[in-house]
Amino acid sequence: MAKKYYVVWQGRDTGIFNDWPTCKRSIDKFAGARYKSFPTLAEAEAAFGGKASASVKASGAAPARKRASGQTVKTYTAAEINKLAAEVKIYTDGGCEPNPGEAGSGLALYRNEELAELWYGLYNPMGTNNTAELNALNQAMIMAQQELAKGLRVAILCDSKYSIQCITQWAAGWQKKGWKKSGGEIKNLELIQEMFERYQQLKDKLQILHVNGHVGVEGNELADRMSIVAIAEKEQAFVAYSKALNIPAILALRAG
Questions:
Q1: pLDDT category of residue 210 using cuts at 50, 70 and 90
Q2: How far apart are the C-alpha atoms of 5 and 184, rounded to whole Å?
Q3: How many CB atoms lie within 10 A of CB 72?
Q4: Sequence spans of domains, the chain
Q5: Which CATH class is domain 75-252?
Q6: If you average pLDDT over residues 247-252, what whole number do you get?
Q7: What's the rounded Cα separation, in Å, for the pair 250 and 41?
Q8: Contact 69, 40 (CB under 8 A)
Q9: Per CATH, domain 5-49 is 3.30.1490.20
Q10: How far apart are CA 66 and CA 49, in angstroms?
Q11: pTM
């Protein structure tokens, strides 16, 4: 199974853990525990409050390396999200079990602070977490384009800094270099090219913002559940959730 890193925001001990047993000791039977697994240390560090460095916690573990300097992405709190001047807010998430493995995407669309729609799908039996996150963001951008055409203000809330930076920061440089980067292959290139073209049309009107996953932000939690529904149902299309929008019942579904 692929290596995972576990971020614990609320538990007996908080931080980044590089093995499940150590993480579990921190959150097991801890009321209000908040945690999530990530496929890379960089993503775990980014999710753990956007700090420049953090200690990886496990028996005998070495300190985490410092993240490279450069552009970053602000993380918005629930309070900041609530204050956003947008009639439409779209939360996105992607899941993969394991990574690579079965992948799916989900989103939750709110109108005037009320849950209006849930969507899920784009199942891939051999996908990756990053591809699933990009797919979710892409679908949100397609929906945002339709909402913006109605004269509405739209914000997309995504918990993947990788996806946001691919589209809003890195793609412009890759395009100038003929869609190449010094570090080697650009993974998910065709999808990123499609998304970047759409972003160029929308960027002056659309907010794409980062929110931490699994910290109690309802929309993010609902999008997470939809990504797991996509995997469970192996839904290859991207479809509207047809059951009742019973928020407590949906949140009670298995998390990713």
A1: very high
A2: 24
A3: 15
A4: 5-49, 75-252
A5: alpha beta
A6: 96
A7: 30
A8: no
A9: no
A10: 14
A11: 0.74
